[in-house]
Design brief:
Elements lengths: L1 E10 L8 E3 L1 E5 L2 E2 L5 E5 L18 E4 L17 E4 L5 E3 L1 H12 L3 E5 L6 H4 L7 H7 L16 H9 L13 E5 H11 L5 H4 L3 E5 L14 E4 L2 E10 L17 H11 L2 E10 L1 E4 L3 E4 L1
Parallel strand pairs: 10-11
Antiparallel strand pairs: 1-2, 1-11, 1-16, 3-4, 3-15, 5-9, 6-7, 7-8, 10-14, 12-13, 12-16, 13-14
C-alpha cells in the first residue's frame, strides 16, 4: 500500500554541520552513502564534538569538493574533501585549514577527521563517558521537564551507545537513517505557534503523505517500507535533543525555545522516525513509499 512519496533527500557531509539537498542517494546497511563521512573531534578529550556539546558547530555548513562514490569506502583516499562555510562567509578547504578555522570560531581545539571502519571500535568509543546529568544537559532537559521514554529503544542499541558516540562505521546518533513527514512539521507548527522547519530537524528523507494524522510516521513503527529499490524498517520514533531549538545560521534560523517546549508538551520529545536498512538500494526524490 502506497503511503506517501519522497519529497526531499538531504545529505550532511560533516556531522552537526548544515548539509544540502540531493536528488538521489544510495543507501547501504550503514545508511546514506556520503552522509556524515567527516566529524569534529575534541582535541582535549578525544570525543566527538557534535552540536549537542558545541552548538556553534551548527552555524557551519559543509559541502563536498568532489562528489563521493556511490559505494561506501573507509579508505582515506576515497573520502572526498569538504569545503566549510563559516558564518562570516569565508569558505575553507583542506582538513588542516578547516581544523584551524573551526577551532578559532568555536573557541576550543577541534580536529576535522574522517569516519573509521566499523572494525575500529576504539575510534568510536567514548573517551570521557557521559554521566546522567551530562546526558540530560545534552538533551536540553531542565529540572521541570519530562524525561523522554528511552525504554522504547532496543536494549542492545542503548548498550552500544553507552560505550560509543555512534554505531561503529557511521557518525549517526543511533540508526542509519532519519525520516520526517511534512505533515508532522505542519501539525507541530499549528500546535505550537512557532515554525517547525525541516532544516531544524535535519532529516535524511522528508516525506509527503496523504494522511490526515498529525504525526503519521509514528504509526509505521515496526513496519517495513519499500522506497525506490531499497527496503527499510521503521525502527522507532526519533528522540529529540536540544539541537533543533538552537541557532542555525546557514538556514537563517534563530534560537527558539518554543520548539523544545512544544516537543515536550505534544510528543514527549519525539519527532520523526529512525530507519534501518534491510535491503540496500537507490532512492530518488518523488519515489513512492510503500508498506511492504
Amino acid at each position: 500500500m502506497k503511503i506517501g512519496t519522497v519529497k526531499e533527500l538531504w545529505r550532511y557531509p560533516v556531522k552537526s554541520m548544515a548539509g544540502s539537498r540531493v536528488t538521489q542517494a544510495t543507501v547501504d546497511a550503514y545508511g546514506m552513502v556520503g552522509d556524515r563521512c567527516w566529524g569534529l573531534v575534541e582535541s582535549a578529550s578525544g570525543d566527538i564534538a557534535w552540536g549537542k556539546r558545541f552548538p556553534k558547530v551548527m552555524n557551519l555548513a559543509a559541502r563536498y569538493v568532489d562528489e563521493p562514490s556511490e559505494h561506501r569506502s573507509y579508505h582515506r583516499d576515497d573520502i572526498p574533501d569538504v569545503a566549510v562555510t563559516l558564518p562570516d562567509g569565508r569558505v575553507v578547504t583542506g582538513a588542516e585549514a578547516i581544523t584551524r578555522a573551526v577551532s578559532d570560531y568555536v573557541g576550543t581545539g577541534l580536529s576535522l577527521e574522517p569516519f573509521a571502519a566499523p572494525e575500529n571500535r576504539e575510534f568510536y568509543r567514548w573517551q570521557t563517558p557521559a554521566d546522567e546529568a551530562t546526558i540530560l544537559k545534552i538533551l536540553g532537559i531542565g529540572p521541570d521537564d519530562p524525561i523522554p521514554d528511552l525504554s522504547i529503544y532496543d536494549e542492545s542499541v542503548l548498550a552500544l551507545l553507552s560505550e560509543h558516540f555512534a554505531p561503529p562505521g557511521t557518525l549517526h546518533d543511533m540508526y542509519p537513517l532519519h525520516a520526517l513527514s511534512q505533515q508532522a512539521l505542519d501539525f507541530m507548527t499549528r500546535q505550537s505557534g512557532t515554525v517547525f522547519s525541516k532544516e531544524r530537524f535535519r532529516p535524511s528523507i522528508l516525506i509527503d503523505t496523504d494522511s490526515e494524522a498529525g504525526l503519521p510516521e509514528f504509526d509505521w513503527v515496526g513496519k517495513k517500507l519499500r522506497v525506490g529499490t531499497a527496503v527499510l524498517e521503521v525502527a522507532q520514533k526519533t528522540v529529540r535533543c536540544s539541537m533543533p531549538a538552537r541557532e542555525q545560521a546557514p538556514y537563517q534560523l534563530a534560537q527558539d525555545s518554543g520548539v523544545a517546549k512544544a516537543l515536550n508538551r505534544e510528543t514527549g520529545r519525539f519527532l520523526g522516525i529512525y530507519l534501518s536498512v534491510l535491503e540496500p538500494g537507490s532512492i530518488k526524490e518523488n519515489d513512492a513509499l510503500v508498506l511492504a
